[in-house]
Structure formats: structure tokens, C-alpha cells
Write a structure and sequence with these properties.
alpha/beta, binds glutamine
């Protein structure tokens, strides 16, 4: 029998419901339980695939090709398990299902309403994962803040489920903020009292209150929160700001969040959470012996959430390499042939990020040229790989008009072109080449050395591809295709064997890096950056001596 944990948020957004949900899931998983997390987003878009990264950060793609909220990335990175389409639900997708059913005549004669039709569909989606029988506990994060008009149907669905299920099968955790007023030198509980009151007015009574705070919460404050929010003191959990998100499971364990959840769900489990791998990772992360600086070239660099998975992949790869990775964000729009040297000197590796559209393209191409010519370790992801292809065509093969038809539809030398199957698609949203595809590696290539196996599976999100018409020319001149999807003949990886580390991948390896399983390309890229940095330091030392 599956049990349900809901996580709601109060007072303000961005309190880290996703991290709290993932941390709780990690602790329960470490006790041997089967847990998954799902996210409900109260916006009308059917999925976040059509959202600009400035609006909603990175779009996270699952194995089965769903374009989802970036919190699913946290779930996978913490739990080291895959999520799927069913783990992310939006208001748009709920309404789409209900309206489609209405058009099919499923509610014939009835007025279709928020209650019961929308709430029934929400409940069906909540229970869908549970029906697979694969999970002991499903943690559902309700996006937005309590009191928002948009989240009302979700809170109502939780209320109904609370009424329908036995008490020990469903609990609600409310995450709230306890602000610290510097002038008064006091932590304030009033906003929390108000948000719990609001939630109660909507019919949902939280079982556990998790308090985000900058300062430690005293027993007195806990008692006050407990009294006004109608929970026992042991159900008031302190969530202090942590130096890294990966520390949060340990903080939650210290304050016994997992124990109170198990108690309330009446689950007997006195095993000690097995966090050996997790703790090893944290130790390595905190006590790194070396450091490298990686340049991240993108056009959304001012918004860190736009490259969330890439940044986290560097954290994982850095830890395993005993190396602190500092990311230097470089806006591609501001790189020119004149300033590239000044902008990129001092880096130990260069990553050109994924993206869409032509803004900042020439800056990316200029940056790739610098890395190719100077031997700086280079890693291009999706659009980053396509830029490497264009750069090589223009500057090595001397095809001056080389471009992608994404940027120049009538380009005379389309070294990157739209995939054949994409040409007939006119609608947006879920229509790119999405999800996991096989890729066969070329024996003894850099890709083969990195993965150590001949066939890999990676996730995709793109419409354009390397144009195979030019392959011969590329390979004869030093850029080879080392990864191929045999079914479609799509080139998934390019590399320059005559360079210390130069790889471009059409897929998104950052989506599969987890704490316990850092992605091999990121790991080897950091290894190459370390080597590059050591060689650089030796050179400087030599120069000083002579
Ligand atoms: N815009 C490119 C394409 O659609 C690259 C996409 C990406 O970087 N995710 O092929």
C-alpha cells in the first residue's frame, strides 16, 4: 500500500521545497524504502518545454522524453533513480486531459467543473505513480505558495485525499520561512502562523512544519510555532541555510525529519540510514585538494537556474576528482575576436552551453576557435557541439559560409541542418527529438576511453543535427564522428583526436549526472582541466626560474 507525503510552501516562493522533498526522499531511500517524488506546477503551459529559461530556468528532460521542471533534476541527482513523464504535472496538462475527455463525450450531460472534475484528475495523477506498485512512498511537491489562486485546486485535491484515506496514509509537510529581523535581533514566527492559517482555511492541516531560517531556532520559538500551528514540538523541523544543497539531507536527519515522517505514517523502520556514499561525496566536496576554473559560455549566464544540471554535474565531477571547480560565467554576446584572448585566459577548460536561436552565436564560435587553437580542454553540449562543427568548417575546412539553418535558413553551406523528421513538424512543445537514444562509440576514440563501453544511452532535446554530407571532409581534416545513432545515422559526438581534450556531444550528459554516479564526460573533462592547469603552473614556475 503506497503512502503519500505532500510538501506545500508558505510565506514566499524559492524556499527550496524541491530540495526538502529530495532530502526527505534520500533519507527514506537510505533506510531501504522505495520512494519517488513528483512535482505539480500550477501554470497553464502543458509542460515547461515552451518556457524561456529566463522564466523558469532549465528545462529538464527525462528518459522517456518529457520536458519537465528543473526540480526533477534534483530528485534524480539525490535519489540516483530515473523520473518520468508522470513525475511532473502542470495545470495545463490537467485541463488538457479534462477538456479532451469533455470533447470525447466522457462527461456527457454533466457540467464540467473544477470540483469534482479538475480535482479528480489531479487526484488521478497523484495516484498514478502509486498504482505501479513500485513505491512505498510518493512525495508530491505542490508548486507555488499557499494562498495563490493557481494552487487552490491542488490544495483542495489534497484536502479530499486527506479525507478519503486513513490518517496514517497521508501527511502534509508545510515549508515556511522564519525571517530574522536584524534590528530587533529576533526570529519572527508571525508569517508562518499566517500561512498555516491560510492553509487551514483551505481545509488542509499540516502535520509537520519545516522552517527555513538563517539562525538556529530555539526551543521557545519551536514551542510557539507548534502551539500556533497546531502540531507537536517534534514536528517543527529547523531547516538552516546550508553551504551546499547536498548537506540538507544530513541537516534534516539531525532534526529527525525522517523519523517524524515514519512515525506519522505508522511505518516501522528502525534501520540506520545508509549514507556512506553520500558522506564520502560530501567529504571530498568540502576538502578538495586542487582547483580549476571552467569558463561557461552561454547566453543565459546571468540566470544560474538556466544551467542548473550543468553546474551540479561540475559539483559531482569536481568532488570525485578531489578538485574545487570554479565556474566563470562568460556571456557569449560579449565575446569578440579582439577580446577573446583576454576573456578566456586563465581558464583551465571551456564549456559551450546548449541553447536556441542566434543571439550570442558568433561569440560562441570565437570561443571554440580559441580552445581548438590553444589546446584548452573543450566540451560542447548540444548547441555547443554544433558551434564546434561550424567553427571547424569555417576555419579549418575553409568553408566561409558554413552555418546552421537554425540561424540562417537559406544558408549555402548548412553544416548543421534540421533533422529530416523535424521538417514536417509545425507545432511547438514536446515536438523536438526528446529523451533517451542509443549511441554507438568508435573504438579507441576519446568518447570510448571516457565511457569504457561501446554503446551508451543519453538524453536529447534538439531539432538540428550535423549534416552528414560534410562528414568525409571533416574526418579527413581532423574532426571525427565518434558517436553515432545507427538507426537514424545521426552523429551524436564529434572530437578532435589531435587536441588534448576536445569533445562535442549532441545530447545532454548533464541530465544523467548524480551524486553517486557523476557523469564520465564531466569527470574526464575536469581531469583534463586539472592536467592543463598543472602544465600551466609548471610553465610559469619554469619561466620564473629562468
Ligand atoms: N538549437 C539547437 C537544436 O535545436 C540546440 C538545442 C540545444 O542546445 N538543446 O538543435
Amino acid at each position: 500500500m503506497t503512502k503519500y507525503v505532500f510538501v506545500t510552501g508558505g510565506v514566499t516562493s524559492s524556499l527550496g521545497k524541491g530540495i526538502i522533498a529530495a532530502s526527505l526522499a534520500k533519507l527514506l531511500q537510505a533506510r531501504g524504502m522505495k520512494v519517488t517524488i513528483q512535482k505539480f506546477d500550477p501554470y497553464i503551459n502543458v509542460d515547461p518545454g515552451t518556457l524561456n529559461p529566463y522564466e523558469h530556468g532549465e528545462c529538464y528532460v527525462t528518459e522517456d522524453g518529457a520536458e519537465t521542471d528543473l526540480d526533477l533534476g534534483h530528485y534524480e541527482r539525490f535519489l540516483n533513480t530515473f523520473t518520468s513523464q508522470a513525475n511532473n504535472v502542470t495545470t495545463g496538462s490537467i485541463y488538457q486531459t479534462v477538456i479532451t475527455k469533455e470533447r470525447e463525450g466522457a462527461y456527457l450531460g454533466k457540467t464540467v467543473q473544477i470540483i469534482p472534475h479538475i480535482t479528480d484528475e489531479i487526484k488521478r495523477r497523484i495516484k498514478l505513480l502509486g498504482e505501479s506498485g513500485k513505491f512505498d512512498i510518493i512525495i508530491t511537491e505542490i508548486g507555488g505558495t499557499v494562498g495563490d489562486i493557481e494552487s487552490l485546486p491542488y490544495i483542495e485535491a489534497v484536502r479530499q485525499m486527506q479525507w478519503e484515506l486513513p490518517e496514517e496514509d497521508l501527511i502534509v509537510i508545510h515549508l515556511t520561512l522564519i525571517p530574522y529581523l536584524k534590528a530587533a535581533q529576533e526570529l519572527k514566527t508571525k508569517p508562518t502562523q499566517h500561512s498555516v492559517k491560510l492553509l487551514s482555511q483551505e481545509g488542509v492541516f499540516p502535520d509537520i512544519i519545516v522552517c527555513r531560517t538563517e539562525m538556529p531556532i530555539s526551543e521557545d520559538i519551536k514551542t510557539k510555532i507548534a502551539l500556533f500551528c497546531n502540531v507537536k514540538i517534534d514536528a517543527v523541523i529547523e531547516a538552516r541555510d546550508a553551504s551546499t544543497i547536498y548537506e540538507v539531507p544530513l541537516l534534516m536527519m539531525q532534526d529527525k525529519l525522517d523519523q517524524i515522517v515514519l512515525k506519522k505514517l505508522k511505518i516501522e523502520n528502525d534501520s540506520v540510514p545508509n549514507l556512506i556514499k553520500w558522506n564520502n561525496f560530501l567529504t571530498k566536496l568540502k576538502f578538495s585538494k586542487t582547483k580549476v576554473t571552467i569558463g561557461l559560455i552561454g547566453k543565459y549566464v546571468e540566470l544560474q537556474d538556466a544551467y542548473k544540471s550543468i553546474l551540479e554535474s561540475f559539483v559531482h565531477a569536481g568532488a570525485i576528482n578531489d578538485c574545487k571547480v570554479t565556474i566563470q560565467n562568460i556571456h557569449s554576446e560579449f565575446i569578440t575576436a579582439e577580446n577573446v584572448c583576454e576573456k578566456l585566459t586563465g581558464l583551465d577548460g571551456l564549456l559551450v552551453a546548449p541553447g536556441f536561436g542566434h543571439r550570442g552565436i558568433e561569440g560562441k564560435i570565437t570561443a571554440v576557435k580559441f580552445a581548438r587553437e590553444t589546446g584548452l580542454p573543450f566540451f560542447g553540449i548540444c548547441l555547443g557541439m554544433q558551434m564546434a562543427v561550424i567553427e571547424f568548417a569555417r576555419n579549418v575546412l575553409n568553408i566561409k559560409n558554413a552555418h546552421s539553418t537554425e540561424m540562417e535558413a537559406t544558408c549555402s553551406e548548412p553544416v548543421v541542418d534540421m533533422m529530416e523528421e523535424q521538417k514536417k513538424i509545425t507545432t511547438k512543445g514536446g515536438t523536438m527529438r526528446l529523451g533517451s537514444y542509443a549511441c554507438d562509440l568508435k573504438k579507441n576514440s576519446l568518447a570510448h576511453q571516457i565511457y569504457g563501453i561501446m554503446q551508451i544511452f543519453e538524453r536529447h532535446r534538439h531539432r538540428y543535427e550535423f549534416n552528414n554530407k560534410y562528414l568525409d571532409q571533416f574526418e579527413k581534416n581532423g574532426m571525427i564522428a565518434s558517436g553515432l545513432n545507427k538507426q537514424t545515422d545521426l552523429i551524436e559526438i564529434v572530437e578532435i583526436p589531435n587536441h588534448p581534450f576536445f569533445i562535442g556531444v549532441q545530447f545532454h550528459p548533464e541530465l544523467k549526472s548524480t551524486v553517486e554516479n557523476p557523469h564520465p564526460i564531466f569527470v574526464k573533462f575536469i581531469e583534463a582541466a586539472k592536467k592543463y592547469s598543472q602544465a600551466k603552473n609548471l610553465e610559469t614556475a619554469d619561466l620564473k626560474q629562468s
